[in-house]
Amino acid sequence: MRDTPPNAIDRPDVISCATGILMERYGCDAEGAIDRLVAWSRETDIGIPLVAAWLIDDVSAVWRRVMPMPTTEETTCPI
Questions:
Q1: Is 76 inside a domain boundary?
Q2: Is the pTM of this model over 0.70?
Q3: 4-11 — which CB contacts under 8 Å span 24+ positions?
Q4: Which residue intervals define the domain ANTAR in the entry (predicted)?
Q5: Three-state SS for 36?
Q6: 7 in a domain, yes or no?
Q7: Domain with 49 in it: what CATH number?
Q8: What tens digit of pLDDT does each residue of 34-76 get?
């Protein structure tokens, strides 16, 4: 597993963000997503916020590869 993303655990919405990711990925409701986080936490003996942070970091890494950040020229709106 990777190191914890900087300040990921300090974010108050880390668990709700991870819950949303799991709901989208697995088609489950919020309770099912939380249950999955709890199960992963127990399996790894790592706290839920850290498990959630790793999930968010992994999903973010995938999106950075699929959708790289636009350059300055690409973000400038033509008039």
A1: no
A2: no
A3: 4/50, 4/53, 4/54, 4/57, 5/53, 5/56, 5/57, 5/60, 8/53, 8/56, 8/57, 9/49, 9/50, 9/53
A4: 10-56
A5: helix
A6: no
A7: 1.10.10
A8: 999 999 999 999 999 999 999 999 888 776 666 666 665 554 4
Q: In terms of residue numbers, what domain contains 24?
A: 14-69
Q: Indicate the residue type of 47.
A: G
Q: Is residue 48 part of a domain?
A: yes
Structure tokens at 65: 């590869």
Are the CB atoms for 67 and 59 separated by under 8 Å? no
Number of domains in the chain: 1
- Please report which residue ranges of the chain form alpha helices under DSSP H: 14-26, 30-44, 48-66, 72-75
Provide the pLDDT for residue 5.
53
* Residue 61: partners with Cβ closer than 8 Å, 6 or more residues away: none
Query: How many residues belong to the chain?
Result: 79
